[in-house]
Amino acid sequence: MIAKALIALGFMTPEMPQQASIQSIPVVQYKASWKCDNCTPEEKYVLKELQKKTRITDRNALSTILGNIKQESLFLSNICEGGARVPYSNCHSGGYGIIQWTSIGRYNNLGKFCNKYDCDPSSLEGQTAYMINESTFQRYLPEFEGSGKTVRQYMVPAYYWLGWGIKGNREIYAYEYTKKLQWS
């Protein structure tokens, strides 16, 4: 009975022995679903990494994160609060990097993370990896991995993640990203 079914489905021919061979099913790696053709290479990199390393699939959630990074740093990884472009070890006050890590613990943990995982704490790559793995981001990640919220609603977990003092244009930037992101 099984042999007849396998023959009918094309897995066996009548001439083949009645013992079916197991065929492996190819595994296709998940590919990021949102693209931003009109974004900078830095914006594209963060977007790609967020989709590759988290389960964020909602355009508004991704746009909110990108909008917040743009407000904090314009995606400049080697920027100290106030605008000085310096390496990680030379920023001694205020925030540093793409999300302006400000508290001494968060700033020091960026350095510790990159020391442990052999990355440059002044680089976009090192900071993006740290940002995604940082305990504060991980605490609010489930809020971004949901779906169906507006940008304004996603700004609530973004506030708790970043703890900004000045809201600035982050929400405007986020809405701009919602128009730039395209389903691939």
Protein architecture, described:
This protein has helices at 2-9, 41-53, 59-73, 104-116, 124-133, 135-145, 151-162, 170-180, and strands spanning 34-35, 182-183. The chain is mainly alpha-helical and 184 residues long. It has a single domain (36-183), classed as Lysozyme, CATH 1.10.530. A two-stranded antiparallel sheet has the order 1-2. The longest helix is centred in the middle third of the chain and has 15 residues, at 59-73. The mean pLDDT is 91.
As a percent range, the share of strand residues is under 5%
Total number of distinct structural domains: 1
CATH class: Mainly Alpha
Regarding quaternary structure, what we see is single chain
Structural class estimated from helices and strands: mainly alpha
Total strands: 2
What is the succession of H and E elements? HEHHHHHHHE
Shape: elongated
Ranges with pLDDT <50 over ≥5 residues?
A: none
Largest sheet: 2 strands, antiparallel
Q: Supply Rg.
A: 23 Å
What is the compact description of this entry?
It contains 8 helices and 2 strands, in the order H-E-H-H-H-H-H-H-H-E. The protein is mostly helical.
Keywords:
184 residues, mainly alpha, Lysozyme, two-stranded antiparallel ribbon
